[in-house]
Amino acid sequence: MAAGTGAGRRSLGVAMIGYAFMGEAHSQAWRTVGRVFDLPVDARMQVVVGRDADKVAAAADRLGWAESATDWREVIARDDIDIVDVCTPGDSHAEIAIAALEAGKHVLCEKPLANTVYEATQMVDAAAHAAEHGVLAMVAFNYRRVPAVTLARQLVEEGRLGEIRHVRATYLQDWITDPEFPLVWRLQKDKAGSGALGDIGAHIVDMAQYVTGQRISGVSALTETFIKERPLLASLEGGLGATGSSERGPVTVDDAALFLARFSGGAIGTFEATRFAAGHKNGLRLEIEGSKGSIAFDMESLNELQFHDHTEPAVSAGFRRLLVTEPEHPYMAAWWPPGHIIGYEHSFTHEVRDFLEAVGTGQQPTPSFADGLQVQRVLDAVETSAAAESRWTPTGD
Ligand code: SOE
Questions:
Q1: Of all atoms in ligand 1, which is nearest to the CA of residue 173?
Q2: What is the ipTM of this complex?
Q3: Which residue(s) pair with 309 in the sheet?
Q4: What residues does CATH 3.40.50.720 cover in the chain?
């Protein structure tokens, strides 16, 4: 481990693999976290890794990394690296994360954990072995760390919703509605594992299970690929933007995934994930109803949580808009004076905060790789069910 800092805290060197949209979001978190939160360890943004030497050097400058490199194997072998942050497409998560854990590095890995249940199982095995040596691993489901979502979990845990009966989760985007939008990696099964299902459906599966404290035990699903062929990729434009060439290739993933679900604690739910919902930009909505109350969360108003207390007298009961901006709310005391809102990027800062807290104190962070594997089993059950004309498919939970 690297030497301690002036404040007596250990200073941990971070290597981030990949620097596209998620790499940029994670970089923002690494830059901010130590200035906002009081942490048991310091994190140094040591090196960012990518395949193209010029592009990754430019990314290091832009995003605030001390160095850049092109060979992740060399980087994870370095003594000055303590943490590896995996921000690559899903096809390399298992290889990089397992190698990093075996090299004794703590690992933060983007979601979904892997492209298949098999790979995720191998990652869980590697994480279990690493944990015996105090090396920790976490999967990056950042939306759990939106304060209103964490608060929703707290309300359920405190019993304010009673027995959970209904879950309604939708994640609606529209960035590939145009049939001429090119064949980026998120539309290729060998790179992404699945389409809307793994990219955004994984988020609502994790969120619904986290907030309810229940696991999805079975599903009946259907998936659809509306646009079967697209222009091959000519160039990436940052964020999710891209331009196409005149040649075309097949789309090998789902464009939309819908499913019914049963939960281990008796709740039932519906899920919908699509990147074809014209007009919906990042429309993630979670509604939960229980015997004593209900909540509704909408990512497009992420500082708010709608809460209905069904035990109140009917004359004045009803949904209340909780503004989740107060120091009493999860994570908020570290930010601005009461009433001042935060945004999308803060969920990544909170994620890195919780990860560093776990590394500093030696506690297992959540969601663990085992939690990531369990989400992967749900995604797998959805695909199995959809391929068998929506046959009811247990997840194993
Ligand atoms: C693209 O659909 C995407 O960037 C996802 O990959 C992210 O996980 C989600 O946070 C926003 O949308």
A1: 2
A2: 0.95
A3: 293
A4: 10-142
